[in-house]
Amino acid sequence: MNKTDLYIYNTLKRKKELFEPLTEGRVGMYVCGPTVYGDAHLGHARPAITFDIIFRYLQFLGYKVRYVRNITDVGHLENDADEGEDKIAKKARLEELEPMEVAQYYTKRYLDAMDALNVLRPSIQPTASGHIIEQIEIVKRILDEGYAYVSNGSVYFDVVKYQRDTNKYGILSNRVIEDMIATTRELDGQGEKHNPADFALWKKASPEHIMRWRSEWSEGFPGWHLECTAMSQKYLGEQFDIHGGGLDLLFPHHESEIAQSVCAFHTEPARYWIHNNMITINGQKMGKSLGNFITLEEIFKGDHSALQQAYSPMTIRFFILQAHYRSTLDFSNEALQAAEKGLKKMFEAFDNIKRIKTGDKTSIELDLMSKATEAMNDDFNTPVVIAHLFEAVRNINLLLDGSESITEADLQRFGDDFSTILQTILGLCEQESGNEQNVVNGLMNLILDIRSQARAAKDWNTSDKLRDELSSLGITIKDGKDGVTWSRD
Ligand code: ZN
Questions:
Q1: Does residue 125 carry a pLDDT above 50?
Q2: Using CA atoms, how far apart are residues 17 and 20, in angstroms rounded to an integer?
């Protein structure tokens, strides 16, 4: 296969382009990671899986990939703009924890959920709070270039001047700056800005603000967009190959990252911008206030009123890969049950390859790998790859019942190709299905019932035995205010 054949839809150019890395054989990719103040939900699964597929496929093509995905642990304010409380500091205040406790707890939970989804860990996972000095350096550069101003201890990026000199604000999101100014809401503290479209590079901390660092302008903290400019430049250089993230980050986050790089380093940061589309739930946007906000843990355990059953991480992964990453994807019980069935069929066929009896001729087409790479080379078209795998599943069944035949050497190749596409490229692996999880849930409820009856009857022998035996299986029981809960290692 020829690696120069990969075409990527570049959001910046609004068209598919032949992928040509800056350095032969190497790819630098930066993806915006999670803000760690709550459990990972469905909206986190899609970008993580999308860029995992890209990471895997580039490596499959033979590239050496440096994949950087940041952890936002400071500077992301409630309204995703320049006002409101820091999301992590707010959680810390409500839970009476140090912000770093919140960030580390949810970082671990996020990574555990991503591991369950078989998402490979990036090469580097830098944190915003670990790169304050680098961010301050970039604020200084932008000030020196004349595209930022200090106002009451805060530093703002001068969007209007940038636009006048470069005409670039809006190149990624295709927005018109005049519209942006008109649609920006009047917010508290906006009086510090020369124009409502300007955004914060550095914010002076209010007295109650916990996360703060010293700078020449004030004791404060960096603006949300700045961390990605600082960390991508530090680990991938002033210009690198791919920048990714969810479509919701296109504006203002990514647009502002471009503006910062153009002013600080005189270059746009990335040559290819890739954005995954969003997930809706039964046709609705997901939101805490809409009552359809489902965390990944709830999905894996079937523990939410919108779910008819538990769904395994692999079912979620397969479901996400059945849609092209640039299409919207609607989450429903019907769609997930269909994905669960499809995945089961796929792995049954995969297991059955070893039961195929070989013959002295091959009557099936052996073009599975070339078809799969052709689809992947067309902007990572995973649904088409999956359709080709299902064709192969049909062939496996025909080979099993003797309607088709295959030689031993061809079967070896066919099996290797099937395995490489399924496991290496798509990252699907065999896992307990959601149904098995439902059985586990039922058994656990039964055991916890027996335990609470034993405790009520002061039968400590039985209740201790249950706790110890479960613990030896890696299951921890916790008695809390809201009743008994359990978790697996
Ligand atoms: Zn970012």
A1: yes
A2: 9
Task: Encode pLDDT of 369-397 as tens digits.
Answer: 999 999 999 999 999 999 999 999 999 99
> In this structure, is residue 230 part of a structural domain?
yes
Q: Is residue 75 part of a domain?
A: yes
Tell whether 289 and 389 lie within a shared domain.
yes
The token duo for 333 is 């019980």
> What spacing in Å lies between the alpha carbon of 47 and ligand 1's midpoint?
12
- Residue 50 to residue 262: CA distance in whole angstroms: 27
- Report CA(69)–ligand 1 centroid distance (Å): 9
On the CB side of 97, CA atoms within 13 Å amount to: 16
Q: Ligand 1: distance of its center to the CA of 80 in Å?
A: 12
Q: What is the pLDDT of residues 177-236, one digit of tens each?
A: 777 665 555 554 558 899 989 999 999 998 888 889 999 999 999 998 999 999 999 999
Tell me the whole-structure pTM to 2 decimals: 0.87
- Give residue 126 CA to ligand 1 midpoint distance, Å: 12
- Mark whether 50 and 189 lie in a shared domain: yes
Can you give the CATH number for the domain in which 94 is found?
3.40.50.620
DSSP state letters, 236-252: H-SSEEEEEEEGGGIII
Q: What is the CATH number of the domain that holds 401?
A: 1.10.730.10
| Within-domain flag for 135 | yes
